[in-house]
Amino acid sequence: MNDDPSRGTTLVVGASRGLGRGIAAAFAADGAPVIAVSRTAAEFPEAANGPGSIRHETADAAEAAVSAALLERHAPRNVVLVAGATPLLRPLHEHTWESFSANWQTDVRITFHWLREILRAPLKPGGRVVVISSGAALAGSPLSGGYAGAKATQRLITGYAQDEARRSGLDLTFTAVLPKITPLTDLGRPAVQAYAARGGQTEEEYLRQLGEPLTPEAAGAAVVSLVRAEATTIAPAYLLSGAGLKELP
């Protein structure tokens, strides 16, 4: 039996586009059966499947009952949470409470429901859980309302889940990954444009200061490598950029 956790069934929540899509394709290319969860239908090219496979589940991951149902149905070895709301980009005083709190109502809600059910089920021994937060949790994001705070809370909740797993004697590993802003996703592209304009820069000038952009393919490779690592070497959180993963204190 192959005990490599990256080859076990991996459930990717938010797999239809951007980093989530890159992560789902990377696990399939590495040989894992992948369950790709998203609110809208998604198709993956045959070449993306490699020696593994990708099955799609259409569901709203923020609904309380969805996490329990999909965990029971697919019994995954690993879970990667990428799904979240696209923030409305405007200054603080131009937000409504509804727009300001959108990422709390979606991103944090998803993380809470899924980590709760993962601990209650629980996942199979040796399971890995990766929560994709954002570099905004460290740097702030003044044009996206409560986005940065929501992303910081995702990181905190992930740490809480690891503590509870240890207290319960569960052989599970939880970690948070905080990707830096990238123009190569539907989420990052308008943010790059907005922050460049706010700073009186061209997009090219703004991007130069960010360094090598993070691609969905690179994000996928990084998460696969993280899941394949020895559990004892996995840190509570990482910053992810085009240069790769960097352990956070």
Automatic annotation (TrEMBL):
One term of GO molecular function: oxidoreductase activity
Record-given protein name: NAD(P)-dependent dehydrogenase, short-chain alcohol dehydrogenase family
Record Gene3D superfamilies: NAD(P)-binding Rossmann-like Domain
Origin: domain of life: Bacteria
Family (UniProt): Belongs to the short-chain dehydrogenases/reductases (SDR) family.
Regions that span the bilayer: none
Keywords, sorted A to Z: Oxidoreductase
UniProt entry tagged with the keyword Mitochondrion: no
Keyword check for Metal-binding: no
Cited InterPro entries: NAD(P)-bd_dom_sf, SDR_fam
Naturally occurring in which organism (per UniProt): Actinacidiphila yanglinensis
